[in-house]
Amino acid sequence: MKYLKQLAVILGITLIGEWLNYLLPFPVPAGVYGLFLMLLLLCCGILRLEQVEGAGNLFLDIMSIMFVPSAVGLMDSYRQIQSVLIPVVCISVISTIVVMIATGKAAEFMITRQDKSRKENQQS
Amino acid sequence: MNFPQESLYFCTVLSLFTFWLGTWLKQKTGWAVLNPILVSILLTIAVLKFLHIEYATYEEGARYISYLLTPTTVCLAIPLYKQLALLRQNLAAVIIGIFSGVIASAGSIFVLCLLFGLDHTYYVTLLPKSITTAIAMGVSEEAGGIVTVTIICIIITGTLGNIIGESIFKWTHLKHPIARGLALGTSAHAVGTAKAMELGEVEGAMSSLAVAVAGLMTVIVVPLVAGLI
């Protein structure tokens, strides 16, 4: 009955997430409300990792396949996007490179600064 | 019953097997272009076209796969919880790094959409393209984007990030493992994280952390900038 309990906990949190999505006016997906709720419960110690990890890891393991059905919808919406295909692909490529460099450089700058101030603190 | 056109399980099995085939092909060849998600989508469409099955019929059975996406998003809390110690130690770098990436993403998409003359629908469709599909699908839908196109952009983004990541790091002299992991996770979500895992343990942990944090930051940023175009 290990997985039954884990499924009940995960789907119970999902249900509360769905309810929050319905109740609150923000454009936040139900799953994200649930993610926060589960993280909060784990941090508070109300929920232990062993109580969700087994079924949770199964979900995370098969996660990639869950994107396929929606993307297959492309066979119906292909004509709709045909005219913007080139700009959409260009934007995807350029912005990916921009984001990668921006994140990496900003993080590296912060790490170097942090290391410097730590060294200075040790010297003084 | 008209078999397999009306089977409730045929389409689900078809998507699962093509995905499996994609995984096998990628292992055999080692080519990042043979992304299993991409292979599965293309082969599934090809088989459906060949057998003259409508998307609506396919969706009838396959929607039970998509149904699992919301509880799976909830479960992303599990790896995030495990990385909390690493997050606390490098809090400033993690927050500033990922935030810069999220802003760079929104900024570059805004400018490029203006340059290419794309309208509001495509702007909000593209905005969540760097984050994990589980969250991005919800963000795109809530903002009024075309979810299918968002998914295609996410796959292009992830595959590209996985392929060019190392070259970009060499080219920009980005050496720190924490910075490299954050860059891969923020720009190319789970597919980028696969590359980060290859680079090292710290890179992998930081990248999976970045996937969750960038996803959450994007949820907040997208509604704020969605009205700009």
Sheet with the most strands, sense and barrel status of chain A: none
Helix content of chain B: over 70%
- Strand tally of chain B is 0
Rg of Cα set of chain A: 22 Å
**How is the quaternary structure best described?**
heterodimer
As a percent range, the share of strand residues of chain B is: under 5%
Secondary-structure map:
The complex is a heterodimer of chains A (124) and B (229).
Chain A (H helix, E strand, L loop, with lengths): L1 H22 L6 H15 L8 H9 L6 H5 L1 H9 L2 H39 L1
Helix pairs in contact in A: 1-2, 1-3
Chain B lengths: L9 H20 L6 H15 L4 H12 L2 H7 L1 H6 L1 H6 L1 H26 L3 H7 L6 H11 L3 H25 L5 H23 L1 H25 L4
Model description:
The complex is a heterodimer of chains A (124) and B (229). Chain A is mainly alpha-helical. Chain A has 2 domains: 1-65, no CATH class; 79-124. Helix content of chain A is 80%, strand content 0%. Chain A has helices at 2-23, 30-44, 53-61, 68-72, 74-82, 85-123. The N and C termini of chain A lie far apart (59 Å). In chain A, 38% of the residues are buried. Chain B is mainly α. Chain B folds into 2 domains: 10-67, no CATH class; 77-228, no CATH class. Helices cover 80% and strands 0% of the residues of chain B. Chain B has 12 helices and no strands. Chain B has helices spanning 10-29, 36-50, 55-66, 69-75, 77-82, 84-89, 91-116, 120-126, 133-143, 147-171, 177-199, 201-225. In chain B, helix 1 (10-29) packs across helix 2, helix 7 (91-116) packs across helix 11 (177-199) and helix 11 packs across helix 12 (201-225). The longest helix of chain B is centred in the middle third of the chain and has 26 residues, at 91-116. Chain B is globular, with a radius of gyration of 19 Å. The relative contact order of chain B is 0.12. At the A-B interface, helix 1, helix 2, helix 3, helix 4 and helix 5 of A face helix 1, helix 2, helix 3, helix 4 and helix 5 of B.
